Amino acid sequence: MSEPNDMTGQPKRVPSGHAHHRCDQCDVRHKAMCAAVDVADNDRLAAIVSHRDVAPGQVIFEEGETADYAYNISSGEVRLYKLLPDGRRQITGFLASGDFLGLVSDDAYAYGAEAITPVELCCMRLTNLERLIADIPPVREKLLDMSHDELAAAQEQMLLLGRKTAREKLLSFLLVRHDHADPQPEDGTVHLPMSRTDIADYLGLTIETVSRTFTALRDEGLIELPDTHTVRFPDIEAVRDAAEAW
Amino acid sequence: MSEPNDMTGQPKRVPSGHAHHRCDQCDVRHKAMCAAVDVADNDRLAAIVSHRDVAPGQVIFEEGETADYAYNISSGEVRLYKLLPDGRRQITGFLASGDFLGLVSDDAYAYGAEAITPVELCCMRLTNLERLIADIPPVREKLLDMSHDELAAAQEQMLLLGRKTAREKLLSFLLVRHDHADPQPEDGTVHLPMSRTDIADYLGLTIETVSRTFTALRDEGLIELPDTHTVRFPDIEAVRDAAEAW
DNA sequence: CGAGCTGTTGACATTGCTCAAATTTCGTGG
DNA sequence: CCACGAAATTTGAGCAATGTCAACAGCTCG
Fold first, then answer.
1. Gap from A114 CA to D24 C1', in Å?
2. How far, in Å, CA of B150 to CA of A209, rounded?
3. Which residues of chain A are within 8 Å of residue B150 when distances are taken between CB atoms?
């Protein structure tokens, strides 16, 4: 139960927040599931959300924990992961602002979630959210669509994990990060808030292989590494060719 | 476009069937999404389904193809897969009778589907199905639940692909097949309708490694191999221990 | 300034892959 | 029912990609 970086004496994982948040002023509303809530129903939405800040490295929820809340990410970056009994970890996805997490069919979370950067969460009790889903058709449309997108991403990741080489894995990862970046940067810059360990556990590799592969790509001139958490593509088309042709 | 085993001169992939099927007499109704359709709405359901038989090895639909239909599997076993340009294949799942496939957020299928055994499909035009989903709340509940289950399975498979050894992969696969088998067999028998190649492409291995691992497990006494497509566990608890403790 | 991370690099080990051949299984026709 | 050929599976030998273990470098924070 002890978290490595937990130096706060505060009670954990208890969303504490404004009873009346202004959902209509939310920065990420347009990207989030909330966009499916009509202006007329805004009050209902605002009434059920609370807020929670999570520091880097801190647990949002653990695999197997009873699922009470679903969350929208207001800001920050989150990792989802599953563990084996001996500690091996597979990161199943990275989420960023506007993304939604916590809906499960079972009543326990099927994976753990941790903050990578400082994270602001918009929390909804599942019992309340389910009522909202039942009452507002566009919300369930949106959620069904989102889960189909997630499923497509998961299948793409299975292809990566099962059939790509280390080089292809890293290139695919960098390209997806680039193409999905929120304010799409003009130059070919990609920001990587997560550690090499996180990248390794996402791609089914070791940190050493990730590190060596970064170095190899840099030596080839396919990427530049201004610093550990930044990658730049001098020629992104060359990268796209390399990603699937090798 | 040529399919290896296609020796029929018949037009392909055109569902041909009874205009009025008796959904209430369907063998797999209780397992399928159709169970969420109230008896009163049975006629609506029956009116939009048609049927299609697919021979082993034949394509049901291809990745990227425009998605016209969704399917329920009435009988038989299906593989879903994604391909890389050079032909490497990742099987993302095996489906059996009662399973549902073909709902996508985009308008193209995100993966291909092929019959492993002779397959009977219950076909629904997406335009019709979507109307059904919109009109019948329990149907969308069921579909949302099903997609959450699929997602959980996909994440479990990512853990397998990224972090387990060949031995653990095969044992996990056999145990899941055993535990999810439809009429749960009393003895520890598992039937594997798919080829070694399919198993390899599902587990992110080569056929040789799959074959060698089967042999090794047999030599250890963990499994018996009465024939290529049948596995028996003399002591299933020993298998469960081996699957996650190694 | 030193401790402690995180990331990189090097040397070596190992799992699982490749290529090749033997063997078994299975469908087909006689 | 049996024989034959094709396909699927198994087995063997060698190898390569990636993992393991270890040392080192760079950065941050007290």
1. 31
2. 31
3. 151
